[in-house]
């Protein structure tokens, strides 16, 4: 059916496009707004957007006489999930935003996409079987990182290193989402995690930065884009796309965010990347594709719960 095609193919591609453009929005904001300040603002917008969405969904469920999850055990899981996921997300997005102060949107997009490779690797510590082709993708990704990030004399820029750390944090966030998503409503969990992220980022902002409306207002467009579209709309599109679809196909489409980030950085920001860096991008993109092709059940589920952030 045409509606199924749109939901299973157009929705995840649109989500990847939104997340890819978000790297450009974050890069623009990084020129004038410090990392904690930007994340405090974007998470506040995302929280309010998702809160309104939760209220609308709850009202719709009540109208249809659907069962609404509640109870002390459910609230405890929601609170714990919000805190754990929120702290992981806040750390990841802070590192990503700091990295974007000195690296390009395209490179940040590809390095962040390493979470797709890291998830099955980290699954080893959780006694999950990893196929041989995944190890090949890890080796390919490491080679791609070398061409993309390592400059003359075996040096790596501080921005690239920050974004690489953020990929590890996003991996932890994915594993946490996998644990809590079977216990609580996904949109409610997202709303809770952005509330925690807002609190965490606000504390960091007040302790280490000097926020002002003079620097915040020029970046308001980026904040609204990342808060509403990247965090709210794209996350919802991902949920709708995953329902009843082939998880491998959806994950492959979602991983296109790295490609869109590179294209958006080149077209909108006129970022210049050398042939060596483009070759690294190609190798990393091949790595994330290989990591997804053999995915089965649990591994697929872990990757598909990933959110851009953005």
From TrEMBL:
Domain of life of the native organism: Bacteria
Database matches in SUPFAM superfamilies: Multidrug resistance efflux transporter EmrE (SSF103481)
TM spans (from-to): 40-57, 78-96, 108-126, 133-155, 161-180, 187-207, 219-237, 249-269
One CC-aspect GO term: plasma membrane
Record keyword DNA-binding present: no
UniProt keyword Glycoprotein, yes or no: no
Signal peptide: none
Alphabetically ordered keywords of this record: Cell membrane, Membrane, Transmembrane, Transmembrane helix
Membrane-topology descriptor: Multi-pass membrane protein
Family: Belongs to the EamA transporter family.
Annotated protein name in UniProt: DMT family transporter
Source organism of the structure: Candidatus Avidehalobacter gallistercoris
């Amino acid at each position: 059916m045409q509606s199924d095609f749109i939901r299973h193919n157009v929705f995840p591609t649109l989500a990847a496009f939104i997340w890819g453009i978000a790297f450009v929005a974050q890069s623009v904001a990084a020129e004038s707004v410090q990392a904690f300040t930007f994340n405090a603002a974007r998470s506040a917008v995302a929280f309010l957007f998702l809160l309104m969405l939760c209220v609308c969904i709850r009202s719709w469920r009540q109208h249809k006489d659907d069962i609404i999850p509640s109870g002390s055990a459910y609230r405890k899981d929601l609170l714990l999930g919000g805190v754990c996921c929120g702290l992981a997300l806040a750390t990841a997005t802070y590192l990503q935003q700091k990295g974007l102060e000195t690296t390009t949107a395209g490179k940040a997009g590809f390095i962040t996409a390493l979470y797709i490779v890291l998830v099955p690797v980290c699954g080893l510590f959780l006694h999950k079987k990893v196929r041989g082709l995944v190890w090949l993708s890890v080796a390919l990704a490491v080679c791609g990182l070398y061409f993309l990030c390592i400059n003359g004399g075996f040096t790596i820029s501080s921005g690239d290193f920050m974004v690489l750390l953020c990929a590890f944090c996003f991996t932890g966030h994915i594993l946490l989402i996998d644990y809590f998503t079977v216990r609580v409503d996904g949109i409610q969990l997202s709303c809770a995690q952005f509330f925690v992220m807002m609190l965490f980022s606000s504390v960091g902002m007040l302790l280490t930065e000097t926020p002002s409306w003079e620097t915040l207002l020029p970046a308001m467009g980026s904040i609204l884009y990342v808060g509403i579209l990247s965090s709210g709309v794209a996350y919802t599109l991902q949920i709708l796309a995953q329902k009843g679809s082939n998880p491998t196909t959806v994950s492959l489409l979602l991983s296109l965010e790295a490609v869109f980030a590179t294209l958006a950085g080149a077209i909108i920001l006129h970022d210049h990347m050398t042939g060596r860096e483009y070759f690294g991008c190609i190798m990393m993109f091949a790595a994330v594709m290989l990591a997804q092709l053999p995915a089965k059940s649990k591994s697929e589920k872990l990757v598909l719960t990933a959110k851009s952030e953005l």
